[in-house]
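[Q] Does anyone have a clean structure-token version of this?
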Amino acid sequence: MGVGLQVGLQVGLQVGLREVGGFGEERILEVIGLADSEGRETVGTDGVIAALGKALRREFGEDFAVYDEEVKQGTVTPCFFICCAESGERQFLGSRFFCERRYLIRYYPKSSDEKKSECCGVLKRLFDCLLWIGEGDGLLMGRKMNGKYEKDALSFFVNYDTFLYRREDKTLMGELSQHTSAVVGGSAEGR
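[A] Here you go.
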């Protein structure tokens, strides 16, 4: 199973699809990438996490560590942890399914005295820097953004939603053979 198809959208973006399974004749394709004109991927769970990391580094600089797996020991603060917290899908139209993916960005502050006020300052910046992620033509808009301070850290949630296409590989016609004969002077030849 590999990349099976690229679809051009009306706005000039390219969507990469990957076959992820199927049942019998039905094939399930997942949107694995929204690429800009230079082929840089920006959608798909891994692509969104990478784009989130880039957006955070742009906004907060290299002094803030960004992790895509939670680290229990040896964490350097201040830091961000990014993961896909929830994923769901529903049929949209025909073979098109709407995939709702909710991402969690957890911020661990550096300050030991003023953790809550540091998290409030970061929260305000997250709303702006995560509204649009990606580069060039491959921008994704964040939706349903909210954040809350809990357990000495900030939890920020944002949705980046995509579509999933299910394609059936059906054989529309069986094998067709044709037998012909020519009639010359009242007799059939070629039988």
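[Q] Thanks! Anything notable?
[A] Residues 3-171 form a domain with the STM4215-like fold (CATH 3.30.2000.10).
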